Amino acid sequence: MLYREAGQFKASYGADQQIFPIRQDRIGIMIVLAIAFIAVPMLASEYWLKGILIQFLVFSCAALGLNILTGYAGQLSLGSAAFMAVGAFASYNFMLRIDGMPLLVAFVLGGLAAAFVGILFGLPSLRIKGFYLAVATLAAQFFIVWLLTKVSWFSNDSSSGVITAQEMVIFGYKFVTPESKYLLVLSVVTALALMAKNMVRGSVGRAWMAVRDMDVAAEVIGIRIMHTKLLAFAVSSFYCGVAGALYAYAYLGTVEPEGFNLDLSFKILFMIIIGGVGSISGAFLGPPSSSCCRFSWM
Amino acid sequence: MQFFLEVLIGGLLSGVMYSFVALGFVLIYKASGVFNFAQGAMVFFAALTFVGILELGVPFWLALVLAFGAMVILGIATERIVLRPLVNQPPIALFMATIGLTFFIEGLAQAMWGASVRGLDLGIQDEPIEWILQATDIGVSKFDLFAAGVAAVLVTALALFFQYTRIGRALRAVADDHQAALSIGIPLQTIWRIVWAVAGFVALVAGLIWGARNGVSFSLTFTALKALPVLILGGFTSVPGAIVGGLIIGSTEKLAEVYLGGYVGGGTDSWFPYVMALAFLLVRPEGLFGEKHIDRV
């Protein structure tokens, strides 16, 4: 570590329990956010914003979701791309079928739909563990992609299953320029990341980590295994779902179910392994390395 | 009824083909606790190497030996370069390493032999056997039956090898408990090398059978995805489980595609095996033949 918390005394419970208890962390986060919100949109070229930074943020969001499930709750999942697909297609359908649906609400509803599906496919985790579970989550991966391809209702009867995301409008403002899209994605991802940081520091996060480290022991000390595991699946899928919606709306514009294939799931898994399993900042360190390598092996 | 039987038999025999790949997974998982995702890539590598050598004008048996040699070298190199530095790391790190290995082996195989699709002829035709067709009116493919025969021989040989040889005993000891095996003087790394070589051999057999069936192409790597449900259904640690799992998955998959596929628009074979395996797991969480895991605090 470059710095220590020595000499920083907390005088109140509030100070002791804040999200970033170390002063250097607080300052560091402020600087990073200032750079990301002010300096980057002014300096970065259109290619960087459109091609790299938005993608980086979207994958960070998905990696965040998977990291909650795999890194904190210890449930290995290979189906994150499928949950992204659910988020993308659900948001699309909410926007399409409900008049005057606000964009951000559609994102949240897309995330909630993904969370619901996540709980369904998380149910086997109550019985099975480890690699058995990893392979079981492949069922979600293949089944969801198949379902989205086969049932044309999801893609509004488009013949190839491709959906084209609607325009992004919030309070009459149209997000068309790369800068505005970038700022929108950045705001959403920042909010979600702070929420995640907040969650893993509280009782929920501690319960997840207890289940990860040894679920029998966690059960013995009174943590409700079912509740904790399913919550991890729900929260993780919610993050993946929102990431999928952002992927469709802010990054690609048009997506098809086949785009959310197993390779994408693996990519997200690689990101959290490279960035660090069981750390929120790891979700942001993984994607750059992966998106830079993308050009060489994809 | 006849149609049902024909679908069932076809499914059972194609299930045997899945078992080949699952067998490679089981061998490595049993001995080293590594979930080797690269098994599909190894199948591809083996088949491509064999066909590549064959194209150089080398006779069949020599090509077989050379391809086996290549698989042994690949296995030993994997043990030395990938696994040894990762000893005692969490299983997920090892798993990710084998995913990376998958990409590497796929690339290596194509760099060495080119990416074009090739045919492979083992001299056995994929046609119904005459006398069964005449007697019962059920078509049973000669090739599938041959594959089933090979599987039977392979499993018997492996079982004998594990049961009655010195190395086999050592392998079982390592599978049981690494530390205990080390403490009584079994060389862990030698054992791992042997296991990877045997898994390479199984991959070669699987590659030949699959390659002769569908052509030697990149799609051979997807056989791994077919083998995974077989694996969790049968249990990661059981050789008979891989075979029985393959039979169950193969038959139900074909039956579902024929009888249910029509109602839901087809293409069920991508996910049905997984859902099937999942249903079994809900009843037996460690697969049909897997070792029961007892948690201790």
Automatic annotation (TrEMBL), chain B:
GO terms for molecular function: transmembrane transporter activity. GO terms for biological process: amino acid transport. Belongs to the binding-protein-dependent transport system permease family. LivHM subfamily. GO terms for cellular component: plasma membrane. This is Branched-chain amino acid ABC transporter permease. Keywords: Amino-acid transport, Cell membrane, Membrane, Transmembrane, Transmembrane helix, Transport. It is a multi-pass membrane protein. The chain crosses the membrane at residues 6-27, 60-82, 94-113, 145-162, 191-210, 230-250. It is found in: Cell membrane.
